C-alpha cells in the first residue's frame, strides 16, 4: 500500500515510517498540512495517516480536502487530544479511525491492516 503520513513531530513521523517500511508499505512523508494536501492532489495514495494539530492546515482540513477532491481513501487521525468533541468531529467529517497519542506502532499496524485489500 502507498501510505501518506502527515505529522509535524519528527520522532513520531520517523517511527511510523520505519514501522510501515518494515511491513513492506511505500510511504510518503509530509510535515505540515499544506504539503499533505498538495501531495494528495498529485498522488493516488491508498491510506492517509494525519495528525490533527499541524502547521499551515490541520488534519481536519486535510480530511475536508480529501472529500472535496472526491477521493475515497481511509484516513486514520492521530491526536494528543483525546477529547470526545474532537474525536466525534473527525468521524463526522469522514475519518476512518482515530488514535490518541502516545500509541504503539503495533497498534497502528493492526488498524492499518483493516484497510488493506484482501
UniProtKB/TrEMBL annotation:
The modification 4-aspartylphosphate is found at residue 51. SUPFAM superfamilies: CheY-like (SSF52172). PROSITE patterns: RESPONSE_REGULATORY. Keywords: Phosphoprotein, Two-component regulatory system. It comes from the Bacteria. InterPro entries: Bact_response_regulator, CheY-like_superfamily, Sig_transdc_resp-reg_receiver. GO terms for biological process: phosphorelay signal transduction system. Residues 2-116 form the Response regulatory domain. This is Response regulator receiver domain-containing protein. It comes from Chryseobacterium contaminans.
Amino acid at each position: 500500500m502507498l501510505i501518506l503520513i502527515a505529522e509535524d513531530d519528527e520522532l513520531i513521523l520517523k517511527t511510523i515510517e520505519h514501522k510501515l517500511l518494515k511491513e513492506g508499505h511505500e510511504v510518503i512523508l509530509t510535515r505540515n498540512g499544506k504539503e499533505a494536501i498538495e501531495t494528495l492532489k498529485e498522488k493516488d495514495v491508498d491510506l492517509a495517516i494525519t495528525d490533527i494539530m499541524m502547521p499551515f492546515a490541520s488534519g481536519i482540513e486535510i480530511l475536508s480536502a480529501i472529500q472535496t477532491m472526491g477521493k475515497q481513501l481511509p484516513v486514520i487521525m492521530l491526536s494528543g487530544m483525546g477529547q470526545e468533541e474532537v474525536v466525534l468531529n473527525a468521524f463526522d467529517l469522514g475519518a476512518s479511525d482515530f488514535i490518541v497519542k502516545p500509541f504503539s506502532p503495533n497498534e497502528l499496524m493492526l488498524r492499518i491492516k483493516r484497510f488493506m485489500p484482501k
